[in-house]
Amino acid sequence: MNARLYYWQRMTAGLMVPLIAVHLVTMIYAIGNGLSAAEILGRTQGSLIWGLFYGGFVVAASVHAAIGVRTVIGEWFGLRGKVQNAFAVIFCVVLLGLGGRAVVAVVM
Amino acid sequence: MSGPRTHFLWRAAMLHRISGVLLAIFLPLHFLMLGLAIRGADALDGALAWTETVPVKIAEFGLVFLLAVHLAGGLRILVLENFQWRDGQKTLAAAAIGVSFIVAMLFGLRVL
User: Fold this and answer.
1) pTM score above 0.90
2) pLDDT, tens digit, for every residue of A53-88?
3) Is residue B13 within 8 Å of B6, Cβ to Cβ?
4) A17, B68: Cβ pair inside 8 Å?
5) Is B107 on the interface with A (CB under 8 A)?
6) Which residues, 6 or more positions from A44, have their beta carbon under 8 angstroms from its beta carbon?
7) How far is A107 from chain B (nearest CA, A)?
8) CA–CA dist B104, B64 (Å, integer)
9) Pairwise CA distance, residues A70 & A91, whole Å
10) Does the beta carbon of B20 lie under 8 angstroms from any beta carbon of chain A?
């Protein structure tokens, strides 16, 4: 892993520490009443705060996961160079796309 | 059996990696499910009905543990790398796993 990717792996990790803590607490709280669209959307729809929270979470998680997966496919499956990088970039773009769509779906 | 791969901290690092890989596999599915709300609350509710089944509840419990253990294991790494601190690594690794179990159990008690 080069220094730039290492830096972004740690930066996104540090950013997500409070986000994951809030996510865990929210899940533990929300699951008590069972999962329903009304509960989720009632909390998130039209909320700028939750929109920014989940939007930032998606970007950080997408970058973090792609860098981590890049390392794993290199070490476990011997994928190196262009194939390794292309896989990581595609994975990141897919996560950003699906995650962005999910945020729009629950906030807008 | 002895050697580096039986060392507690090697196992902690492997748990961090495996939890990360499983979370990476889960993320697209998580996003796809929430994205159903783009077609309205009914579409999301239809998928959420599936989460009332016991196997899915057990999987949710596992996912919460994976997220908690990846967070705690990640904190361990950030502390190791950024602070002048080298003692008690095993204690911290064990604490990381212990706290994750507690978080997952809290979720588990509420989900069931």
Assistant:
1) no
2) 999 999 999 999 999 999 999 999 999 999 999 999
3) no
4) no
5) yes
6) A50, A51, A54, A106, A107
7) 9
8) 6
9) 9
10) yes
Residue A60, min C-alpha distance to chain B (Å): 12
Measured between CA atoms, the residue of chain A closest to residue B28 is A95
For helices A81-107 and B8-35, the axis angle rounded to 10 degrees is 50
Q: Decide if B41 and A72 are in contact by the 8 Å CB cutoff.
A: no
Q: Which structure tokens are listed for A102?
A: 């999910």
Give percent above pLDDT 90 in chain B: 29
Question: What CA–CA distance (Å, rounded) separates A66 from B72?
Answer: 20
Give B38-63 pLDDT, tens digit per residue: 888 888 888 888 888 889 889 988 99
The CATH class of B4-111 is mainly alpha
Spans of all domains in chain A:
1-21+55-108
3-state DSSP of chain A: CCHHHHHHHHHHHHHHHHHHHHHHHHHHHHHHHCCCHHHHHHHHCCCHHHHHHHHHHHHHHHHHHHHHHHHHHHHHHCCCHHHHHHHHHHHHHHHHHHHHHHHHHHHC
Q: Which amino acid is at B111?
A: V
Q: A65 CA to chain B: closest CA distance, Å?
A: 6
Cross-chain Cβ contact A10/B78 below 8 Å: yes
